[in-house]
Amino acid sequence: VLITGESGTGKELAARALHAESPRADRPFVALNCSALPADLVESELFGHVKGAFTGADRDRTGVFEAADGGTLFLDEVGDLAGSAQAKLLRSVEEGRVTPVGKTTSRPVDVRLLAATNRPLDEMAARGEFRDDLLYRLQVVTLRLPPLRERRSDIPAIAVHFIAHLAGRHDRPVRSLSPGARRALVAYDWPGNVRELRNVVERAIVLAEGETI
């Protein structure tokens, strides 16, 4: 499943929900943020390495494919992977096997692969920036998460959820939103989406006087 959507729309939450409702729910869910990986460590993070495979490899390391064996592997911001890493990822997806860095033999892995991106992979593929054969493998099913500005009726319910979740954490008596606060939240476009909404609600909880924001 390829999950698309702007930053802050909840792509990892959607991935975790897909895992939780699947037959693999009692198996590992392993997430990897591809945009945070140094280029020279991508292969090691994905497939692992053996001791002495490169400078600094002072012990064997298990990659995320093996860690997720039997469960779900979630690759966040997969559009940020370099071309060489895309090729190696494609091979492992197609063969169902991984070869740790520094090893010559491979081993089978059984993972459900979920990927997410806020980038237009089809346009990137057309420009040669993302492998189209990898894209075909990733987007068997595509799930688009709409930004908050396209589902404004959800905003008050999400805000109330955050109040219930965060007020106790901050030991504050806040329980509800005033009608004016609801209108203000619904009218705003939320470029940071749900992540920004949570931040605003949390700030309001801390600063509010009484039970109502």
Plain-language structure description:
The protein has 213 residues and is of the alpha/beta class. The protein is built from nine helices and nine strands. It has helices at residues 11-20, 42-47, 64-67, 83-95, 121-126, 132-138, 155-166, 179-187, 193-207, and strands spanning 2-4, 29-33, 48-49, 61-62, 72-76, 97-98, 107-108, 112-117, 142-144. The strands form three sheets. It has a five-stranded parallel sheet. It has a two-stranded antiparallel ribbon with strand order 3-4. A two-stranded antiparallel ribbon has the order 6-7. Strand 6 and strand 7 (107-108) form a beta hairpin. The longest helix has 15 residues, at 193-207. The protein starts with a strand and ends in a 6-residue tail after the last helix. The mean pLDDT is 92.
